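Q: Give me the 3D complex with zinc ion.
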Amino acid sequence: MAPARCPLSDSRPSMSSALLASSLTSYSEKKDRSCLSQKFHDRPVRMAEIAVVFDFDKTILDCDSDDWVVDKFGLSEAFDRLRPTLPWNSLMDRMMMELHSRGKTVEEIADCLKEAPLHPKIVSAIKSAHASGCDLRILSDSNVFFIETILRHHGIMDCFAEINTNPGSVDAKGRLNVSPYQDFYHLSHGCKICPANMCKGAVMDKIRSSASAEGKKRFVYVGDGNADLCAGMKLEEEDVLLPRKGFPVWDLICRNPTLVKARIREWTDAAELETVLLNSVDALGRLENGNAKAIRPIPVACKFQTSLLDAAPKSPTVRREPEPCSSVV
Ligand SMILES: [Mg+2]
Ligand SMILES: [Zn+2]
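A: Here is the predicted complex, encoded as structure tokens.
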């Protein structure tokens, strides 16, 4: 059985230190948490104009929730064997069917999810951003059962105004059904970055539209994967993208920073994400207050590749890879 795979021990290839230093700002603006919290509460109206959209797996959660359940229930071999024959989302539904056939209950699946690693710093960051008045949303290719189970367990479910993900529901027989966000058997989104069941860029457009209608002016996006770049490419110059350092979205940006119009702040782990996230929304609040220098522009210095698809990283130790639209079965 393969061990559970968590990103912090992942040894995927990444860019050289010199290149990274030239392409992304190193975030050294460590601020005192209590000062930040006080600043938030000084400007509740402006903070309400900021929407923060989080990826879930390897961003809020420290590992991939699908991998976690598959590995913990001993389904790794079956998953890897069927992987070439099914899209990821359909394969997860197959795995849930397998668990049901083995007599595993949804309560056991929920208990497994509650053990998945979610750092306390992530919880405090989410609670602080929510308390400041920011509009928090999730955009994930996991499923609603997994995400809600984990968020409730950590007491942060109510911090989020919206969860955009694949449906996941329990039927009358007690079997968890996972289905695609988009019915890709009948409608292709046409995006070559994202898996067939969900184009994060297209969903980001919807989020942007609905949030803007509610008065949101600035967006922060946090993520780690290839599809998070698709969402990040929907950000405007005044927005902020927070890519996880050393992960696919960060590799792609390093190779072609011009893909993203938004300001970029990298982060490595939960503690750094808390600092970067709270400083970013604080800076956006100052920006809204007319201080255009609140966030420094990012030097764009590593344009050695222009093709996004050419730049797609090879990550042999990671299960979740981009699926071309033609992979629809
Ligand atoms: Mg992710
Ligand atoms: Zn896409």
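A quick observation: The first strand starts at residue 50 and ends at 54.
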